[in-house]
């Protein structure tokens, strides 16, 4: 049994998806559709721009989705359809990529939603007020306790439960800085602030959640062709819940470790990472080494994946 998983922010790189677009007209069409939906040449920024511009939340989110969907279209060209997967899942914004791949949203609507999401998340908290930090070497419960101790009346919460030894905390900058110090005192191998511009997946993002609720209400939403394992539930969910869970996801924790555990418990033996980078593949391996991983972001990856599926 196979899951298609879709990367989140942090996987962006200049040039991502370009080889796919050159090799597969269907992949190029995705980037064209995103450009048209946003009324700008985002593809030019992705392939020829500055990494600082691409890393801005409002650009990174639709860019990563475009790259993932381009890889999905390339797979389809080689005969690998979505039905080759039993589940889809995505890390944070990757959940939107997963839903676009599964037909819940059109590519154009997904691009517009992610532009709104990126802007809303940036505007929710003034620059410099919030922060995020990664804690390595403490499990989720220990990192959660660190965040609670560091809060001291401010917001500080476990935002991303990525794998057994990597948790991201998010909230007010001073509280997150305290969490870094406390984590090291509690035995963390490393704890450091992340180069992000807002405290994602924390209560401080509530205004962004309200904006996403309004945006999602205006978009046609269809049941996904295969079940979605939702970030905030860490399990496959009923399609009727998806809209509300996407709103909840803005302030809620990304329960990636538990999602991978749920996959393993429900028969998933392969996770294909569709799009830029290999970060999710590493996380999956650290959660459960019995799940084989495959990253698909280049034409060679696509051909190899199609051949492996046909052989199987």
Core attributes:
14 helices; four-stranded parallel β-sheet; 312 residues; four-stranded antiparallel β-sheet; single chain; alpha/beta; 10 strands
Concise overview:
With 312 residues, the chain is an alpha/beta fold. The protein has helices spanning 18-23, 25-38, 42-48, 51-55, 57-77, 94-101, 107-124, 140-151, 173-185, 206-217, 242-251, 256-265, 279-287, 299-311; strands spanning 2-6, 87-90, 130-136, 156-163, 166-172, 190-193, 229-230, 235-236, 270-274, 292-296. It is built from 14 helices and ten strands.
Strand segment count: 10
- Spatially, the strands of the biggest sheet line up as 2-1-9-10
End-to-end Cα distance: 12 Å
* Low-confidence residue ranges: none
**Cα-based radius of gyration, to the nearest Å:** 18 Å
Q: What order do the helices and strands follow?
A: EHHHHHEHHEHEEHEHEEHHEHEH
What is the general shape?
Answer: globular
Largest beta-sheet characterization: 4 strands, parallel
The number of distinct helices, counting runs of at least 4 residues, comes to: 14
Beta content comes to 15-25%
- Give the structural class: alpha/beta
Instruction: State mean pLDDT (0 to 100 scale).
Output: 94
Helix content: 40-55%
């Amino acid at each position: 049994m196979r899951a298609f998983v879709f990367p989140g922010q942090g996987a962006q790189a200049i040039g991502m998806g370009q080889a796919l677009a050159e090799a597969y007209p269907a992949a190029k069409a995705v980037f064209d559709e995103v450009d048209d939906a946003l009324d700008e040449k985002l593809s030019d920024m992705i392939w020829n721009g500055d990494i600082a511009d691409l890393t801005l939340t409002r650009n990174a989110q639709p860019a990563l989705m475009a790259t993932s969907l381009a890889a999905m279209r390339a797979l389809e060209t080689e005969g690998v359809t979505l039905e080759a997967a039993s589940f889809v899942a995505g890390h944070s914004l990757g959940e939107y990529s997963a839903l676009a791949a599964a037909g819940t949203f059109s590519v154009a609507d997904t691009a517009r939603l992610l532009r709104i999401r990126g802007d809303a998340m940036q505007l929710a908290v003034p620059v410099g007020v919030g922060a995020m930090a990664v804690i390595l070497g403490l499990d989720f419960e220990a990192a959660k306790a660190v965040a609670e101790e560091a809060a001291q009346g401010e917001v500080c919460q476990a935002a991303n439960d990525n794998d057994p030894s990597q948790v991201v905390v998010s909230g007010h900058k001073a509280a997150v800085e305290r969490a870094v110090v406390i984590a090291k005192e509690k035995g963390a191998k490393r704890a450091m602030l992340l180069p992000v511009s807002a405290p994602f997946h924390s209560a401080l993002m509530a205004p962004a959640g309200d904006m996403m609720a309004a945006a999602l209400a205006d978009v046609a939403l269809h049941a996904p062709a295969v079940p979605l394992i939702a970030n905030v539930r860490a399990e496959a969910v009923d399609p009727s819940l998806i809209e509300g869970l996407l709103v909840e996801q803005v302030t809620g924790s990304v329960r990636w470790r538990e999602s991978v555990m749920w996959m393993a418990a429900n028969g998933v033996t392969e996770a294909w990472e569709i799009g830029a980078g290999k970060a999710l593949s590493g996380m999956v391996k650290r959660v459960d080494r019995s799940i084989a991983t495959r990253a698909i972001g280049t034409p060679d990856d696509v051909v190899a994946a199609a051949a492996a599926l046909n052989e199987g």
